[in-house]
């Protein structure tokens, strides 16, 4: 089989396009956003890159000849929507709860509004090479389908490992064989996860909160991060009963209220750790944790590092989260 051209790793030429403006892509008011891409792997059948957009509001729009797997950084969070092929699959909430699967030649569009914080490792895989490999491994063609936040028994640890390897301090030269092996295992587990869930398409949420209620609840939570938040108070913001609220909230946001609130607190703490020199204890108290110890445990569980390690690792980024030291 002929070898395909090696894909470029510049943000502009790799097929990914971002706009700083939140106007519809292609309008006269759009402002192209250049995002540094860190290359982890560049082979004839697959490539791995890491992009960090931080807190910059943006649109993203791409349609690739390769399958694209999106593994978001721990703590990544979006205020906005994303979808594939015109279907709105997911709205505001944490991005790191699964893997987004965008099949070759399918169109992905996303919108990150103020309040978002986005970092992502992308795995690009050429369909014919994947079909060949999976035919040998599983005896079937690799018919990947669109998925948002796909989960599986082995997908979570694979995603954790790729996130770790994409961190600047873990970038290692001559690591291609290991990363290639990981890509092959990842593809196999993605196919198995899609088969096991019989996922022809992602079902649209039904029975969730209205857009207005979602906005009110989010604003209330953001304004009360340092307070104890009761379920009844949240339900009152949405104008529904506490029983109905819990179910409707999870449909709308993909998480129960307490886990969503925790993700907001970790998100805000990460912003403060990156952009200020406030003592870690003060950061903990300002986002609703009762002590620095409680904060450190929750932060490590969410971000896979301590608050101090996170602050040190982000010393080379500006307040938007974009790398100020150029491509690595």
UniProtKB/TrEMBL annotation:
Family matches, as Gene3D superfamilies: Homeodomain-like
Keyword Iron: no
Pfam families in UniProt: HTH_18
Keyword Isomerase on entry: no
Keyword line: DNA-binding, Transcription, Transcription regulation
InterPro entries according to UniProt: AraC_XylS_family_regulators, Homeodomain-like_sf, HTH_AraC, HTH_AraC-typ_CS, Tscrpt_reg_AraC-type_HTH
UniProt-recorded Gene Ontology molecular function terms: DNA-binding transcription factor activity; sequence-specific DNA binding
Domain HTH araC/xylS-type, chain residue ranges per copy: 215-313
UniProt xrefs under PANTHER family: HTH-TYPE TRANSCRIPTIONAL ACTIVATOR RHAS-RELATED, TRANSCRIPTIONAL REGULATORY PROTEIN
Name of the protein: Helix-turn-helix domain-containing protein
């Amino acid at each position: 089989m002929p070898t395909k051209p090696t894909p470029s790793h510049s943000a502009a030429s790799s097929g990914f396009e971002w706009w700083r403006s939140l106007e519809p892509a292609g309008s006269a008011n759009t402002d192209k956003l250049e995002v540094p891409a860190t290359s982890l792997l560049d082979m004839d059948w697959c490539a791995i890159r890491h992009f960090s957009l931080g807190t910059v509001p943006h649109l993203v729009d791409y349609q690739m000849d390769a399958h694209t797997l999106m593994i978001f950084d721990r703590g990544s969070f979006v205020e906005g929507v994303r979808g594939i092929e015109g279907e709105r699959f997911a709205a505001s909430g944490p991005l790191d709860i699964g893997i987004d699967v965008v099949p070759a030649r399918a169109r992905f569009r996303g919108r990150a509004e103020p309040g978002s914080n986005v970092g992502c490792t992308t795995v690009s895989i050429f369909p014919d090479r994947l079909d060949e490999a999976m035919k040998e491994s599983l005896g079937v063609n690799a018919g990947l389908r669109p998925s948002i936040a796909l989960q599986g028994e082995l997908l979570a640890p694979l995603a954790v490992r790729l996130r770790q390897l994409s961190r600047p301090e873990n970038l290692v030269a001559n690591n291609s064989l290991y990363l290639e092996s990981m890509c092959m295992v990842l593809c196999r587990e993605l196919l198995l996860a899609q088969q096991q869930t019989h996922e022809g398409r992602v079902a649209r949420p039904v029975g969730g909160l209205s857009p207005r209620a979602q906005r009110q609840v989010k604003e209330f939570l953001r304004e009360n991060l340092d307070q104890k938040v009761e379920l009844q108070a949240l339900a009152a913001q949405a104008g529904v009963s506490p029983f109905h609220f819990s179910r409707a909230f999870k449909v709308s946001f993909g998480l129960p209220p307490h886990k969503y609130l925790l993700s907001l607190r970790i998100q805000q703490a990460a912003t403060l750790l990156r952009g200020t020199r406030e003592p870690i204890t003060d950061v903990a108290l300002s986002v609703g944790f009762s002590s620095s110890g409680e904060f450190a445990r929750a932060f490590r569980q969410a971000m896979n590092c301590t608050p101090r390690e996170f602050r040190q690792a982000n010393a080379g980024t500006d307040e938007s989260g974009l790398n100020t030291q150029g491509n690595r």
